[in-house]
Design a protein that fits this description.
Distance between the termini: 52 Å
Strand content: 15-25%
Mean pLDDT: 96
Shape: globular
Number of helices: 12
Largest sheet: 8 strands, mixed
Length: 476
């Protein structure tokens, strides 16, 4: 019997798991994919929003502001990159200036600090590549950027370090009341738990509707992005939004914590909960709309494109709390979900801990150490590390300067990588200019060696993503 079973190992489920591990109990995370961060959490804008956009009093507003406030301490504890670079929201006519003031007032009501209203000239003085068409801007100094992979992995590994179990390749297929709590039916058998947390992303309405009379409905909202090379990473120093519309915050231009430039997303409601394909039309929209707010974007430096799905619930707010006895929802987690996840974890773990009477865990260790990124180390530290272990000097991914030692650490970590994408998200091997064109065969060899698998057993991501189908000749 588990105290709590969490459905979903995205950033929200992982945040709930980490906060629960502050208490004594038996906890398990059930994830249908082979790794954490395989759904919405892997494909988003990587922004820590300040909190001026959501309507005051909503869960989105409360969780956004609190999550943003938690990030300085959390990034240190989890050993993940986080930078408060600030963000602009720009408008292009005097008629739109009152809308910026509305956002400013909303931010004040939500408790956001560090906001300023600027003229176009004042904004361009801070951000020279802003378009000449920019008439005014809201500057939110508390906005930041983060790596969504590393945040999710950091939360999950911290939870696992503190005793939370993770069961991957485990599809939850149903729920029914048990003798004490719930019986969770999965593709790997049944799990009994006193409480269940629904953090199933775009499938959260299905899980909710299994047990609750008040039904939810989630519409998958696809957003497409373009990612530019490091050579374009300094084109802007802050995130640049345009005035938000019906479908969200619009197309942004933003630096990333790893030195790239990110453009996007689009916002299109679709029927499929699995369709993350990019489209020529969508990517063209990204390029055209991003150019409205920022001039001279070096679009020839685009190295890849991708899309992600946001879980838009009809009520247009996060659905958080106990929706049935012992059943807790974290549903409808769309933007600003990445920012809000730490606060959602704190909030739900508090509710669950009080309901189940879970005592404090005196052995909880908040600190987690990530895979060392050798190229970011000072020269002296890098040399000392290589002297101690030459594997850190054997470069596998030339674009991102990722070593064999880092890949080995990623494979044998707390929740070790078992796929090509798992290695990529932990080390950035394959994320550079050539997009894994050079390093993939070597990373596959290392996965094969370190995990004792034949190359035909190596996957890009899920079980169906086989890379090597068969051998065409014998050993030589």
């Amino acid at each position: 019997m588990y105290d709590v079973a969490i459905v979903g190992a995205g950033v929200t489920g992982s945040a709930v798991a980490r906060e629960l591990s502050r208490r004594k109990g038996r906890f398990v995370v059930l994830e249908r994919a082979l790794d954490v961060c395989e759904g919405t959490s892997k494909a988003n804008s990587a922004i820590m929003h300040a909190g001026f956009d959501a309507e005051p009093g909503t869960m989105k507003a409360k969780m956004n502001v609190r999550g943003n406030q938690m990030m300085d301490q959390l990034s240190g504890e989890l050993d993940i990159p986080f930078r408060r670079v600030g963000a602009f929201v720009v408008c292009f006519s005097k008629e739109e200036l009152p809308k910026l003031k509305e956002l400013y007032d909303r931010g004040v009501a939500n408790g956001v600090s560090g906001m300023e209203l600027l003229t176009g000239e004042q904004a361009r003085a801070l951000e020279p590549n802003l378009s000449e068409e920019v008439e005014g801007a809201l500057l939110a100094n508390t906005s930041g950027i983060v790596c969504p992979f590393e945040l999710t992995l950091g939360l999950a590994e911290s939870a696992a370090k503190n005793g939370v179990e993770f069961s991957f390749d485990t599809q939850v297929t149903g729920l029914e009341p048990g003798e004490e709590g719930w019986v969770v039916h999965t593709s790997r058998g049944d799990y009994a738990a006193r409480a269940v947390v629904n953090a199933a992303g775009v499938f959260a309405d299905e899980v909710h509707n299994w047990v609750c009379a008040d039904k939810l409905h989630i519409t998958p909202r696809r957003g497409e992005y373009c990612l530019l090379d490091h050579t374009a990473g300094g084109h802007v120093s802050r995130t640049v939004f345009q005035l938000p519309g019906k479908y969200g915050k619009g197309v942004l231009v933003s630096p990333t914590v790893h030195g790239n430039l990110l453009l996007g997303p689009t916002a299109k409601d679709i029927g499929s909960r699995e369709d993350t394909a990019t489209t020529a039309q969508g990517l063209q929209e990204v390029l055209e709309k991003s150019a409205l707010g920022v001039k001279n974007i070096p679009t020839r430096q685009v190295i890849t494109s991708f899309s992600g799905l946001r879980a838009h619930e009809d009520g247009d707010d996060f659905v958080l709390g106990e929706s049935a006895p012992g059943f807790f929802d974290a549903a409808g987690i769309e933007s600003p979900g990445l920012t809000s996840a730490p606060a959602i974890g704190e909030y739900l773990a508090g509710l669950i801990g009080e309901k189940l009477g879970l005592p404090e865990n005196p052995d909880f260790d908040p600190c987690r150490k990530g895979v060392p990124h050798v190229k970011d180390l000072p020269v002296e530290e890098r040399a000392a590390l290589i002297q101690k272990d030459p594997a850190y000097g054997q470069i596998v991914c030339r674009c991102e300067e990722v070593s064999y030692g880092e890949i080995r650490d990623a494979i044998h970590g707390i929740l070790g990588a078992k796929t090509l994408d798992g290695v990529k998200r932990r080390t950035r091997a394959g994320m550079g200019r050539c997009q894994a064109g050079f390093c993939s065969p070597r990373v596959m060899d290392l996965l094969s060696q370190e995990l004792g698998l034949d190359l035909t057993g190596i996957r890009k991501s899920g079980k169906e993503a086989q890379i090597v189908l068969e051998k065409t000749r014998g050993e030589v």
